User: Which sequence fits this backbone?
């Protein structure tokens, strides 16, 4: 929120001495108002829309059948327990809670993974975003202007995070939005063109914004070729459990860790535990040897130390309590399965329409997670909002979890009307 000027309140402004003024004023005078986050501004417009049958397909949070983003029952239980039992809020270390990290590592990578051979280590971060920031800074070390290959379209925060760390970004079109066609062949080509030491960014599952994921043969192929070509994977795993299943969604990541000497995995617990604002995530690093892993990990912790000193505790403490208690674990897994099943129902329901206004929706049934790209222009997006009360990102990304199954006919009718008007 940009502070508004208060005309009634005038405070005398002390000036810098002349001669010093221009240098100091250059600092204050050179900033520009940054564009508002488009999705956050959609949130505001949606809230202000009085229509009762409006649909919010914009912001990337899970919604249940009644359009709510609930606090999971297991989270509520764990929070109650935390309130009763927590003895101290004294500082954690920069690496966060090692028990949370170990429990997550074993869940994500398979039982025993954290202890297996000492080549996998992790630290708790403020969300997946914090993990990506540390990963980007690590990758910018030990090699000036390292290249990072990024398939497009991708999560809009990837580019600024990687670029701010000083990495050189090379993009390639991983998904043709106009035809809704996934092009893994372009990723395979990028891997052949990349130089040893380059980084390949991969979405572990439930690609944001396209929903198009590699199959296991694809993952096996890239693990092999990346190992042979000396490339470094940065895997962004932010939606485990919301695609095909808990283990299925991590299968590609596990293949990469098994098939390559080293890898970085930026993990988010914010979606699969519904903890968004509590900022829960982890960065996992794997090195070729125990000694290299330890040095990589300790450098990651040093980056965390100078970035946020230590991660917020509450959400990770909740995740830890859930994973330590079999009853809470079962409750969480049951609710996560329900979320996954609901997303799959919406996908299947929409896919069954086949072609709508020239857009082939049938592929939605084979894509995963909350997001999909519709090849519609910003004008059609605006028409959908104005005419039908359907809100989405101007890129054409929709959050399928924002759709109720009984609202699918209205969504399809709105889409047909908006795109046909745009064509006319
Ligand atoms: C692909 C991807 N990576 C990372 C994140 C960041 O997640 P977090 O909210 O945990 O920082 C998101 C969030 O939308 C995402 O879509």
Assistant:
């Amino acid at each position: 929120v940009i502070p508004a000027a208060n005309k009634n309140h005038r405070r005398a402004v002390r000036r810098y001495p002349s001669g010093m003024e221009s240098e100091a004023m250059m600092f204050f005078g050179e900033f520009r108002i940054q564009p508002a986050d488009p999705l956050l501004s959609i949130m505001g417009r949606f809230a202000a829309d009085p229509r009762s049958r409006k649909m919010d397909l914009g912001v990337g949070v899970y919604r249940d059948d009644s359009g709510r983003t609930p606090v999971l029952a297991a989270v509520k239980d764990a929070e109650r327990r935390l309130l009763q039992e927590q003895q101290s809020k004294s500082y954690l270390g920069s690496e966060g809670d090692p028990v949370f990290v170990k429990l997550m590592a074993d869940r994500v990578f398979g039982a025993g993974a954290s202890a297996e051979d000492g080549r996998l280590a992790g630290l708790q971060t403020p969300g997946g975003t914090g993990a990506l920031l540390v990963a980007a800074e690590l990758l910018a070390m030990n090699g000036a202007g390292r290249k990072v290959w990024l398939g497009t379209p991708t999560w809009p925060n990837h580019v600024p995070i990687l670029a701010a760390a000083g990495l050189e970004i090379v993009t390639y079109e991983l998904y043709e939005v106009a035809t809704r066609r996934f092009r893994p062949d372009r990723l395979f080509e990028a891997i052949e063109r990349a130089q040893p030491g380059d980084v390949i960014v991969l979405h572990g599952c439930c690609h944001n914004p396209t929903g198009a994921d590699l199959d296991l043969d694809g993952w096996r192929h890239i693990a092999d070729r990346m190992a042979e070509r000396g490339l470094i994977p940065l895997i962004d795993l932010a939606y485990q459990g919301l695609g095909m299943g808990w283990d299925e969604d991590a299968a590609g990541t596990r293949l990469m860790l098994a098939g390559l000497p080293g890898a970085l995995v930026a993990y988010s617990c914010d979606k699969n535990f519904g903890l968004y604002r509590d900022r829960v995530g982890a960065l996992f690093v794997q090195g070729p040897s125990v000694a290299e892993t330890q040095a990589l990990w300790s450098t990651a912790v040093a980056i965390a130390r100078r970035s946020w000193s230590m991660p917020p505790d509450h959400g990770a403490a909740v995740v830890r309590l859930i994973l330590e208690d079999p009853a809470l674990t079962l409750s969480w897994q049951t609710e996560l399965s329900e979320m996954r099943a609901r997303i799959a129902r919406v996908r299947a329901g929409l896919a069954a329409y086949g072609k709508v206004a020239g857009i082939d929706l049938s592929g939605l049934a084979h894509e995963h997670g909350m997001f999909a790209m519709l090849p519609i222009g910003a004008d059609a997006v605006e028409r959908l909002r104005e005419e039908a009360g359907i809100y989405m990102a101007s890129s054409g990304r929709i959050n399928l979890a924002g759709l109720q199954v009984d609202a699918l006919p209205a969504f399809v009718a709105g889409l047909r009307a908006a795109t046909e008007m745009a064509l006319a």
User: Anything to note?
Assistant: The chain has a mean pLDDT of 94. Residues 78 and 84 are 10 Å apart (CA to CA). The longest helix spans residues 326-351.
